[in-house]
Design goal:
442 residues; alpha+beta; DNA polymerase, domain 1; 4 domains; 4-stranded antiparallel β-sheet; 3-stranded antiparallel β-sheet; 7 strands; 48% helix; 10% strand
C-alpha cells in the first residue's frame, strides 16, 4: 500500500499490490472498510472494521494464493502452451453453445462438490434450522414467524431438499401465498432455510439455492394492482350478516374496517402482537389525529401498543362515530376484543359461506380477502386525509414508503363517505344485547 503523506487525507479506494496481484480497499458509508480483488475471473469481497485489518487481509490472501502452486500465476508458469488453452476454449464454444473455460471449471467444481452432498429431508432441515436459531437466542417473535412460514412448506414438500427446483418452489409460493407482501416474507424465510441446508448441512450442492434464483420482487405498481379491498356493499353484508349469524365477529370486523388494525392486532399472534383489549378504547377523549373531513366526528381514541415502527411505542387511532356505534353494545365487556383465540379465520370463512348461500342472484359472491379490512380502511381513509401519506402511515403503524402498496387509488370521495357512514340498523342494540345475554346463560 502506498505510504500516506503527512497532512494529506487518504483517498479511497486504496490500491494494495503484492507479487503482481492488485486489490482495493474502499470506505463504505457505514464506516466499514471493504476489500475487493479478482481471482479466477470472479470478484472476491470482504469487509473489516479497520483499515489495517483490510490491508493486512489482502496482503496475506495474496501470499496464500501465490504459495499455492495451483493458484500462482506470477511465480509458476502455465502448465501448457497458450495455444492449448485457446484450442480448448474454441472446442467448448463449438460444442456447448459458447461456453467458456470458466464455465467448464464452474461446472466441474459444482459436480465435484456433489460428492460431499449429504441428502436430507425437508422436515429434517427445517427442524435443524429452528434448533440452530433458538440456540442463538434470537427473538421469540422471529422464531415464531420462521416456524409459521415453514410450516406449510414442510407439509407440502416431503422429499430431499436438494431435489426441489426453483420453478417448482416459485409455483408453490405463488399458489399458496397470492398476496405479494406475504409471498416476499415467506420467500425470505425459505432463503434462510436453503442457505443453512447448503452451507451448514451440506444438504444442497453449492450454488444451488433455489429461492435465491426467484424473479425480482414485484414493483410498487404491481403491488397496487394486487391490493384487494371490500366494496362498501360487501362490508355492509359482512357486518349485518354477523348480527344474524355470529355477533362475536362484529368487534373484530368493525375495528378492522373502521380502525385499520392488523388482523394480528385484533385476534392476536403469539410472541409478536398482543391483541387489543377493551381497555384500549378511550371513549370521549380528544383525538390527536385530525379527521380532515367535515361531518365525520370522532368519539375517542384507540391506543394500540407494541408497534412495528420502533420509535413509536403506541399509536393513537381516531374512533369514528361509526366505529363507536357498532361497538356500543359491547362497551361493557372486558378482556380481549376477540376472546376466541385462533378461530377467527375459520369463523369468518364460515360466515362468508353462509352469506353466499343466502345471496340473491344479483349479488356477487363474497370472499375472504387477505388483510382486506386493513387495506380497505387505508383506501377509504386516505380520501378523508386528503391523500396525506404521513397521517395515514401514523395511523396504520407503517412508514409512508411502505403504506403506498396498501391502498387502491381508484377509490372516490363518495366511496369513502359511504364507508364511514355504514351505521348499524335501528334494532341493532337490542339484537346484540339479547344475543350476548343468551351466550352468558349458555
Amino acid at each position: 500500500m502506498a505510504a500516506k503523506r503527512p497532512g494529506v487525507p487518504l483517498q479511497f479506494p486504496i490500491t494494495v499490490e503484492k507479487n503482481g496481484r492488485i486489490g482495493h480497499v474502499s470506505l463504505w458509508k457505514s464506516g466499514v472498510y471493504g476489500t475487493y480483488f479478482r481471482f479466477g475471473g470472479k470478484a472476491r469481497r470482504n469487509s473489516f472494521a479497520t483499515l489495517e485489518g483490510a490491508t493486512a487481509f489482502l496482503e496475506s490472501e495474496f501470499t496464500r494464493l501465490d504459495n499455492n502452486q495451483a493458484n500462482s500465476t506470477t511465480l509458476h508458469p502455465a502448465r501448457h502452451e497458450l495455444r492449448v488453452y485457446h484450442e480448448l476454449e474454441e472446442l467448448l464454444r463449438e460444442r456447448s453453445n459458447g461456453a467458456t473455460l470458466h464455465d467448464a471449471v464452474d461446472y466441474y467444481l459444482m459436480n465435484h462438490e456433489q460428492n460431499r452432498l449429504k441428502p436430507r429431508s425437508v422436515d429434517e432441515c427445517v427442524q435443524k434450522l429452528i434448533e440452530a436459531q433458538e440456540a442463538r437466542n434470537l427473538s421469540p417473535g422471529y422464531i415464531e414467524t420462521l416456524k409459521k412460514h415453514l410450516r406449510k412448506f414442510r407439509s407440502h414438500f416431503k422429499g430431499d431438499i436438494h431435489r426441489i427446483s426453483p420453478e417448482e418452489l416459485e409455483k408453490w409460493l405463488a399458489t399458496t401465498y397470492p398476496g405479494p407482501k406475504t409471498r416476499k416474507n415467506v420467500r425470505g424465510s425459505l432463503v434462510t432455510l436453503f442457505k443453512y441446508a447448503r452451507d451448514t448441512l451440506n444438504a444442497i450442492p453449492p450454488g444451488n439455492t433455489a429461492p435465491e434464483k426467484f424473479k425480482a420482487p414485484v414493483t410498487d405498481k404491481q403491488k397496487e394492482e394486487d391490493v384487494e379491498i371490500y366494496l362498501v356493499e360487501e362490508y355492509q353484508r359482512l357486518l349485518c350478516g354477523a348480527i344474524e349469524h355470529d355477533v362475536l365477529l362484529i368487534p373484530a370486523l368493525a375495528t378492522g374496517g373502521f380502525g385499520g388494525l392488523r388482523p394480528a392486532e385484533i385476534h392476536g399472534e403469539k410472541a409478536r402482537y398482543e391483541p387489543i383489549h377493551w381497555d384500549a378504547f378511550k371513549w370521549n377523549t380528544p383525538t390527536p389525529t385530525p379527521t380532515r373531513k367535515k361531518g365525520f366526528k370522532t368519539q375517542g381514541t384507540l391506543d394500540v401498543k407494541n408497534q412495528k415502527v420502533r420509535n413509536i411505542k403506541t399509536r393513537h387511532l381516531p374512533i369514528y362515530a361509526v366505529l363507536s356505534a357498532w361497538l356500543e353494545p359491547f362497551k361493557c365487556m372486558e378482556g380481549r376484543v376477540w376472546p376466541l383465540g385462533a378461530s377467527y379465520n375459520h369463523r369468518l370463512r364460515r360466515l362468508v359461506d353462509k352469506l353466499n348461500k343466502e345471496a340473491s342472484d344479483t349479488q356477487r359472491p363474497l370472499k375472504v380477502v387477505a388483510d382486506g379490512l386493513r387495506h380497505s380502511y387505508a383506501s377509504y381513509r386516505i380520501r378523508h386525509l386528503k391523500n396525506d401519506l404521513n397521517l395515514l402511515a401514523a395511523e396504520m403503524g407503517n412508514s409512508p414508503e411502505e403504506i403506498i402498496g396498501h391502498y387502491k387509488k381508484d377509490v372516490t370521495d363518495q366511496d369513502a363517505d359511504r364507508w364511514f357512514s355504514l351505521m348499524p340498523p335501528p334494532d341493532y342494540a337490542e339484537k346484540i344485547a339479547a344475543a350476548l345475554k343468551l351466550r352468558l346463560l349458555a
